[in-house]
Amino acid sequence: MSSPRLIMYHKHATSARTRFLKLAYGGVCGFSAFPAQARVTDPLRPPARVVRHPAAIVREAEAHLDLPSGSLEVEPGFRCEVEADQELTQVFLARFKSIDPPFEAAHAQGGRFIDLTQARGLPPVELELLRRSYEQILG
């Protein structure tokens, strides 16, 4: 099993505007692109025997973005698996807890925040992950 990935988003407390962090490599799964043949596995498939806890990847993301500890919060109940090159990668979802998205931190790393409608050019695997993420966020 390869290192887990993290999709990061911000949902404004007042307006509920939801934006995803698009990273410097051009996608939303921190912090590198999946291979072209990657696909989200069937949710009906039995879960992996070893499930990693997302806390470590959240702390790594905060460090990578130079954010204070506790800036990100794992979205409970969300976990997807992506299969590529006969390896499974777990994907988790985390929310920025700040009132506004950390625009400066994202920009400093070559990233930016996008609305779901701005994700059209992403690879199919990332679009599917965003669809599932958005369903989770909406409840």
Detailed description of the structure:
By secondary structure, the protein is of the alpha+beta class. The protein has a single domain (5-138), classed as Nucleoside Triphosphate Pyrophosphohydrolase. Helix content is 22%, strand content 27%. It has helices at residues 55-64, 103-108, 124-138, and strands at 5-11, 18-22, 29-30, 39-40, 72-74, 80-84, 87-96, 112-114. Strands 1, 2, 3, 4, 5, 6, 7 and 8 form an eight-stranded mixed beta sheet that branches. The chain is globular, with a radius of gyration of 14 Å.
Structure described in brief:
The chain is 22% helix and 27% strand.
Level of helix content?
A: 10-25%
CATH class (first level) name? Alpha Beta
Q: Point out poorly predicted stretches.
A: none
Shape descriptor = globular
**Backbone structural class:** alpha+beta
| Second-tier CATH architecture | Alpha-Beta Complex
**Straight-line N-to-C gap:** 29 Å
Instruction: State the major sheet.
Output: 8 strands, mixed
Series of secondary-structure elements, N-terminal to C-terminal: EEEEHEEEHEH
Our Rg estimate from Cα atoms comes to 14 Å
Tally of DSSP β-strands = 8
What is CATH's topology name? Nucleoside Triphosphate Pyrophosphohydrolase
How large a portion of the residues is in β-strands, by DSSP E? Answer: 25-35%
The overall average pLDDT, rounded, is: 92
Number of domains: 1
